[in-house]
Design brief:
Radius of gyration of chain A: 28 Å
Number of strands of chain A: 16
Catalytic activity (chains A, B): pyruvate + acetyl-CoA + H2O = (3R)-citramalate + CoA + H(+)
Strand order of the largest sheet of chain A: 2-3-4-5-6-7-8-9
Number of domains of chain A: 2
Protein name (chains A, B): Citramalate synthase
GO molecular function (chains A, B): (R)-citramalate synthase activity; 2-isopropylmalate synthase activity
Keywords (chains A, B): Amino-acid biosynthesis, Branched-chain amino acid biosynthesis, Isoleucine biosynthesis, Transferase
CATH class of the largest domain in chain A: Alpha Beta
Low-confidence stretches of chain A: none
CATH architecture of the largest domain in chain A: Alpha-Beta Barrel
Mean pLDDT of chain A: 90
Number of helices of chain A: 19
Strand content of chain A: 15-25%
Helix content of chain A: 25-40%
Structural class of chain A: alpha/beta
Oligomer: homodimer
Largest sheet of chain A: 8 strands, parallel, barrel
Largest interface: A-B, 113 and 115 residues
Organism (chains A, B): Roseivivax sediminis
Chain lengths: 539, 539
């Protein structure tokens, strides 16, 4: 019988400590939903009371299979657990589980907290007991445990025993400053178990300051710990936390873990982990790292000629796991064969049938490659990919021609002496031989100006003659901008998500050194995609 | 007496297998020089004969302290080592050392090479013996050793013994497909030593396919191997090789390695490792990853308020090593997680002294929190944070007032019937009571239009009267845009990185529903920050 390992995600709390990361409530809900879908056991949502976003998240969070967990700290000295307002705010989030961080390193107790060692033990005991009495599953995060154990093992263990005896379900050994190497982690976890904290109540929380957080977590499991805390993509303070996106495939697929342990993550869910990893980058507006273990775009890329030819004979020669098992794909730059069958599959998904060996396939592949080199991203912008393919196949209708556009943004004082901004766009198109001029500004209902792209979008969608009624239910739902490398110089890549009244959602891409040009290109593709779907019925 | 560990760098060979990486000869020379300056023992320069760049590199390479090493493969079956032209090309590079890769996995010998197991052993023996006879230090890279040992340990060991008996100085166990976890690596290395290959002739070569390449290398050292192969920044095929930039500080600074082992890297050289890591990113034209262990810009960044206040009392509380030891710096960003102590620390770094308990601290914190809630991001945009704080403290000079601006983008056909885009901006400022109108377009030297933000930046920087000469050495180096939640609605956040002739680099932020407004706000902050630093001397 495999033993159960528990996975605890702290992307929404420790992950938010990453420099430059600040999740909105909506983003937290999106990430929590993805974690829940994976089969993570605990989702730590934030520290209620510490900032308004975290409190709002717990108020709005939908029910989940995962145990939603609020983070906080042990009560302060000189007041009871019942009267500690910080602790009360944590409990008021009404989550089934609560994780409290507390000190276990004598130096920190005396230097940072400035209280006696006995007071700190009592803070741990009373806080855990209070949460348990409120019916919550209670976790104790033993901050700086490894440094504390090195400095004063008796005291560090006394803190853990206080949490254990007060009823903590999990006692989590935290390598808070990331300085403990895997060998040391394994040794200390074994010592803790020998000292009377059972392994099935022990968790591990590592940081990547020596680039060994994943290995440190594995060493703790080998030594007997049964809960792993980590984050998606290794997000987290400084160098990040242990990366669950690397750990989960290792635990499910690799010796000696596969078979020996089981987690809440099914093989079906595992096949979505690449998608989950990229969703997080999307939320953060980051380019996914190609080199990421298991899920990176290069993780199964075989550049060396020797490797690529061996892969064709037997993939197991250079792949330690099947890329499909983690939802990733093999990539062989040299292999036109693999490229073409891949391409045909993508075209079929877009409803375009092309016979194997059709010379258009090679032309489309070349075009995609050339344009991706200029900065386009067709993986994301499926609708633009489809428009490109249709053009190569001679299946693209023009619908209308854009003759010119002009957009202006002006900021100045109004008659009340307040600075105001106004954007205005003019778009000139030719439809059925007729020239149509449209002008729009971009003031919204609150009187604030939404900017030049909004004005352009409105002007473009204002009068497309006989196509107008088809695009009337279309609207812009997201707009992403990235500076990227186009050949030798920096260009702007704009990705626009559009939606319509039929519930469809599609993405298009534009690239230019000029952000307005890039945006207009993506807007045009979006309108033409919609027309290519719906205008046929009218024609 | 500490034992000597040897470091072998393969950035120029295995690192070049990274998707998208192709070094020029000049780049290879630059990287080799940096490696040599660090005190690396062996520099593997490439595979002479396999491509023209690698051959040219060996021809042109300057003398080095490191042992320059040419990579190649064992001779093919059916010819003698003396008559193998591939092997001859490797020897013709005239390097003091040669590293030959050969098969040790029976499956690969029979499937990929299609020769008998005995022929393969003879290829290893004869090739190593030939190089040794030519007076070269010879290394044998045992490809797929860990998979081979798992499948057929006797055969895998027989291959190693052939290399040992033929006089190979180093026998390197390669985990070619990256699938072996640290625990497995340690176990196999111990078995190999017990089977008669001495540890001081054993090297380890790992890949990061499970995000454990660094830990795998350390496990091999703990088991007795004495050479580590890796690359700068973990460059390499698929997920990369073991990252020497993480391994070197760990070996020099961390228990149980520091003191027990010594390498060719001095403490002085270690203090340049951050610089070496960033030099490689510079060669690759990549933005350095902030989260890198030891050398990343976030490696010593302390965002959580609790951590920052402890750091002020004693840096060792949240730092496992001194950032200066690796040439990196502590950084305490502003964000809505932060407390007053964090804030004071941050202000001090900006040269602003505020007494503890000063009521301005609370006002600044409130303002930062409110603005971050609107979408601003002050932990990235330090210069904007500083301008905000100076304004609250009444220390902000106005310098000039912006009366209005206007920017337009027009796309239309030119006289040659080609679609072209032109951006134009007008900025009106008032300086010392005098109104100044400036107009700019944004055509670059190649004739392509760089867009409205570029035009605005040029117009704003065109005539600032007596401040003009101060901002003349300023330029825009990066521009990041994201759509974020500002209160209840989506807004655009723009972060601009600027640089000047004194080598300073600073970041500013602007937020608005209108991307042009947001950009202009960030541009203004950038100019004012520069003036607040340099204009005082003139006043």
């Amino acid at each position: 019988m495999p033993e159960r390992l528990y996975l605890y995600d702290t992307t929404l709390r420790d992950g938010q400590q990453t420099q430059g990361v600040q999740f909105s409530v909506a983003e937290k809900m999106k990430i929590a939903k993805a974690l829940d879908g994976l089969g993570i056991d605990h989702i730590e949502g934030g520290w209620p009371g510490a900032n308004p976003t975290d409190s709002a998240f717990f108020d709005e969070m939908a029910p989940s299979c995962a145990t939603m967990t609020a983070f906080g700290m042990t009560k302060r000295a000189g007041r009871s657990a019942e009267n500690d307002d910080v602790l009360a705010a944590v409990l008021n989030a009404n989550t089934p589980a609560v994780c409290l961080v507390g000190k276990t390193h004598d130096f920190h107790v005396e230097t940072a907290l400035g209280i006696t060692l006995e007071e700190n033990v009592e803070n741990i005991r009373a806080s855990v007991a209070h949460c348990v009495a409120q019916g919550r599953e209670t976790l104790f995060d033993a901050e700086h445990f490894f440094d504390g154990y090195a400095a004063n093992p008796d005291y560090a263990l006394e803190c853990l025993r206080a949490a254990r005896d007060a009823g903590a379900r999990w006692i989590v050994l935290c390598d808070t400053n990331g300085g403990t190497l895997p060998y040391g982690i394994g040794r200390v976890v074994r010592a803790v178990i020998e000292a009377g904290i059972p392994g099935d109540r022990l968790g591990i929380h590592t940081h990547n300051d020596t680039e060994t957080a994943v290995a440190g977590s594995l060493a703790a499991v080998e030594a007997g710990a049964r809960q792993i805390q980590g984050t998606l993509n290794g997000l987290g303070e400084r160098c990040g936390n242990a990366n669950l996106v690397s750990l989960i495939p290792t635990l499910l697929l690799k010796e000696p873990y596969a078979g020996r342990y089981e987690t809440g993550v099914s093989r079906d869910a595992l096949a979505r982990i690449t998608q989950v990893s990229r969703m997080l980058d999307d939320v953060l507006n980051r380019v996914p790292l190609k080199q990421l273990a298991y899920v990176g775009a290069s993780a199964f890329a075989h550049k060396a000629g020797l490797h690529a030819s061996a892969i064709l004979k037997d993939p197991s020669t250079y792949e330690h796991v099947d890329p499909a098992s983690v939802g990733n794909e093999r990539f062989i730059p040299m292999s036109n064969q693999a490229g073409q069958s891949n391409l045909r599959r993508r075209l079929m998904e877009a409803g375009i049938e092309v016979a194997p060996g059709d010379p258009a396939l090679a032309r489309i592949l070349d075009k995609v490659k050339a344009r991706e080199n200029e900065g386009y991203a067709y993986d994301t912008a499926q609708a633009s990919f489809e428009m490109l393919a249709r053009a190569e196949l001679g299946q693209a209708a023009e619908f209308f021609e854009v003759k010119r556009y002009r957009v202006s943004v002006e900021r100045r004082k109004n008659k009340y002496d307040r600075m105001v901004t106004l954007s205005e766009a003019v778009v000139v198109v030719k439809i059925d031989g007729e020239k149509k001029l449209s002008v729009s500004e971009s003031m919204d209902e609150t009187g604030s100006d939404r900017g030049p792209i909004n004005a352009l979008s409105k002007a473009l969608g204002k009068d497309l003659g006989r196509y107008q009624e088809i695009i009337d239910d279309m609207h812009l739902v997201d707009f992403k901008v990235r500076i990227t490398q186009g050949g030798t110089e920096a260009v702007t890549r704009v990705i626009i998500d559009s939606a319509d009244g039929q519930g469809r959602r599609w993405s298009t891409v534009g690239v230019s050194p000029n952000i307005v040009d890039a945006s207009f290109e993506a807007l045009l593709d979006a309108v033409r995609w919609k027309l290519s779907r719906d205008a046929v019925a009218l024609a």
